[in-house]
Design goal:
eight-stranded parallel sheet, 11 helices, TIM Barrel, three-stranded mixed sheet, alpha/beta
Length: 286
């Protein structure tokens, strides 16, 4: 299938009470593992790229890999740019072939965030690309930008409504108490705020900082309106640990063998999350 946007994918998920898994890849192997996991469960899936990953591999390389894998796949796949803080870079990815982008102006004052997000929104809409935006400050580390717990800030429901009213969003990422990276303690999730923002904006919510949350927390967030769940740190850990573990166990230097082990562990981990989020079966065709 051709690459899709997140619009219909997330609207269906929100209406049916499940969430689409969005997984941050780092190379061709991880990209293929994410899509193969989705295929095994007949589930829609979002393949996410960080700005650093795009800069490392190059836009044309990532898009060509993704198109090749998606065209051979029977399930809906979106290619999404995660946490982009640069308007010009977001536009470049839109032109290069991403089917969805996230502009993250959450570090800016409300009006400036809205102005910059609107600029990206205009480019996205003209190209038929879906858009995600963020409000509030999500704690942790993302793209080497750290937000201390004391500086994290929950999204204000009234501002969220005003923000979403001005934009055509496929997904909205309000800060609700989660954090990027590895949790150092039990996160305090503002469940009531999730429900309020989801109901008042009518926009499918994106849950960031998914790695490390308990299963019941995922289920509750999804039930309250989170239709997209981001998993990044887990992918990074499995990517490194599986390769090292294979080498330490077998002590051989045939690269394709640890790569195969890495692929399988990535695929299995992604499949587990897709099942947890309730997406299995919702990407079936025919």
């Amino acid at each position: 299938m051709a690459l899709e946007t997140m619009i219909e994918m997330l609207q269906i998920a929100r209406a049916q009470g499940y969430a689409v898994g969005a997984f941050n890849i780092v190379d061709y192997t991880s990209m293929r593992a994410v899509v193969r996991a989705a295929e095994g469960l007949a589930a829609p899936v979002i393949v996410q790229t960080s700005v650093r990953t795009v800069v490392y591999w190059g836009q044309s390389t990532l898009v060509s890999w993704m198109r090749e894998i998606a065209e051979e796949s029977p399930v809906p796949v979106a290619l999404h740019l995660d946490h982009c803080k640069d308007v010009a870079f977001a536009k470049q990815c839109i032109e290069a072939g991403w089917t969805s982008v996230m502009f993250d102006g959450s570090a800016e004052p409300f009006e400036k965030n809205l102005t910059h997000t609107r600029e990206v929104a205009e480019a996205a809409e003209a190209a038929g690309v879906s858009l995600e935006a963020e409000l509030g400050k999500i704690g942790g580390v993302e793209e080497e930008i750290a937000v201390a717990d004391a500086q994290s800030q929950l999204a204000d429901p009234e501002e969220a409504v005003a923000f979403c009213r001005e934009l055509k969003l496929a997904a909205f990422a309000p800060a609700i108490g989660t954090a990027h990276g590895v949790y150092k303690g039990k996160p305090k999730i503002a469940f009531e705020r999730i429900e309020t923002i989801a109901n008042q904006t009518g926009v499918p919510l994106a849950l960031h900082g998914g790695t490390g949350l308990e299963d019941d927390v995922f289920r509750k967030c999804i039930a309250l309106g989170c239709a997209k769940v981001n998993i990044s740190t887990q992918i990074k850990h499995v990517f490194i640990d599986s390769f090292v573990e294979y080498h330490n166990t077998h002590q051989e230097y045939e690269p394709l063998k640890p790569l195969a082990a890495q692929f399988e562990q990535l695929r299995a981990g992604v499949a587990e999350k897709i099942q947890l989020f309730g997406g299995a079966g919702w990407g079936a065709t025919g």
